[in-house]
Amino acid sequence: KEGVTGPFAVTGTSFGGPHAMAAAVHFGPDRVGFLGLRVPYIDWAVSEEVGLPLRQAEMQYTSVSANTTLVGHVAGRAMMAMCANPAGYFDEPSLLQRAFLNFLQPKALANISKLNEEHADTMQCIKEDLKRGVVCSGQGWLYMSATDMLLDQKFDVRNIDSGIAVVVWYADDDEDCPPSHGAWLVKELGAKSSRVFSGLGHIGAAFVDHVQFLEEVMMA
To answer: How far apart are CA 159 and CA 179, in angstroms?
Structure first.
């Protein structure tokens, strides 16, 4: 509309990684010049083909089951409760809240405590971002992360053009996305730069030093 044609920088974090990679495959280097991935997942088909573990992908939520099953509704309501009051969950969680966080990520409480101490500003940004997400229902969150919407897409990450500059950050202690996914992408896509976090888990590697991450993507 405004005559802006690119190339653009596309980034994706966690379950946003496959969406960003799909955009890079679809639009190619003429439109996508830079691709930034943080704690990224590889799509289901390629993961199985190259022998990488699936972990979170094994939950097999679909866009239908996320919105129609009892488990989907319970998970959606729990997610809405956390997004509406992230400080309650991240600062002084109740026993029920602690159980929910541990269900999402086994080491979540320890990592959140460390992030609160060492990266207070980042945690404040995360809390504000979660509260903004309340406009999207818990079922909406599950829908966007459903297997058929996310990891079953018919594209091959190996078709990302070598002319696209790639940056990959991941964690060696990620409880959700296997670190092997990040390591494989660094090698397979010939990443211009990469960073491996340790001791902060999935949530820390997803958010810490994000300004630096964006700068690194744009300079790749």
So the answer is: 21
